[in-house]
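Morning!

This is the sequence you dropped in the shared folder:
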Amino acid sequence: MNFDLELTATLEKALAEDFGAVGDLTSNLLLEERQAGSATIVSKESGVVAGLEVCGAVFRAVDPNLEVEKVISDGTAATPGDHVLNVRGSARSILAAERTALNFLQRLSGIATLTARFVEQISGTRCKILDTRKTTPGLRLLEKYAVTVGGGHNHRFGLYDMILIKENHIRLGGGIEAAVARIRNSLSLEQRQIQIEVETTSLPEVKVALHAGADRIMLDNMTLAEMKVAVEVIDGRCEVEASGGVDLGSVREIAGTGVDYISVGAITHSARAFDFTLLFN
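The structure's back. Tokens below.
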């Protein structure tokens, strides 16, 4: 997948949604076409900034003549009042791009900030925080990028880059062993090597998945006690991922069970927008 092409298409769609057929009525009727100005995007809270390149790309998509200057870089911890980006040029163009640029910046910074909080909670352990596919439709690449800015790691990007045998696959495929065997055989015939992960909900299923040769076993909604036993049973023979109902209050204890990864859907589907404002100088 071409990130630049994906980004261009996403920005074009977002701007078209805001502009409609006539553009910024208010600014076009109020301001002279040649009126210039300079503005600054300012942080209104504390957190991790992500999406400055995307934000700048929005301004340039609206008007290639706008001058955009990043004051800080993605991954920087901002505090209230910090300047993060400057833009100069046509006042009309700056105002036309403002909301869309801020929407991307607020969304991505919110994800990076929440991810960083989860990562901080498990500091000192060998465990890693993973995202999921629970992303905003059309924004997956950007949201998964924001996760990495916050110190997290990406799980699969889609249905195409990893095999994850979930509950319904197991039901429809004749059980864990049959599902793994059939997929392994198909991959062998096609001479492809793709990691196979199996979702399990009980210790007996963990043992079956391990015997079937899973590369990674997901422990879905298990208790801490069950996770500890599962890690002992697996004994390093494959990767172990914990998932389901993870929050900031429980993630440290889950990491303490010895799992390799903890997947957290909340870092994308429940991240609160980071508060920024754009002010003309």
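Headline: The chain has two domains: 3-119+272-280, 121-269.

More detail when I'm at my desk.
O.
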